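Q: I'm writing up a methods section and want to include an example of the input and output format. Could you take the sequence below and give the corresponding predicted structure tokens, formatted cleanly so I can copy it straight into the document?
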Amino acid sequence: MAILTMAVSVTAPALSNFFRGRTLDLEARRLLALTRSGQNRAVSEGVPMDLWVNPDEGVYGLEAEPSYEDHDPKAVEFSVDRGVQLEVGKQPAVTPTAVSLTRLQSPSTASVPKVNLTHPGLPTIRFLPDGTVSETSPQKLRLSGRDGSSLWVAQTRDKLRYEIRKTDE
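A: Here is the clean output for your methods example:
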């Protein structure tokens, strides 16, 4: 019994650090899986999908943009593990394209679809029906553990999807 007690007392701190690190890794994998799910749903259903993030409350979710239906029955919401903090990296600045109009021409909004985000005011990764990521989407999300370790869910170099990175490249 004494040997068992000593073995547990020696391995307990190492095991707690192991599980803490696994929590950060699992949270990053869940967020990455949600990006893939959102992209797949956008393509298969032909409707933009919003992966919204609320870092202040520690929640994020995936929902179809309101179009023909007001409610998405497949919407999901997750709470970040209490040992993990979620931060949103800087969002890209999108500059509108300058168009020269003559005095007789008027601007048309017919070719610019109206965006109805499911959670306006929150950072949102927007997946379009053609499988691309909207250029207004955050490029990086940072997940930090209590021990100071971090993982990044960031756009790939080709800006077509997201991946997990160990550093902020």
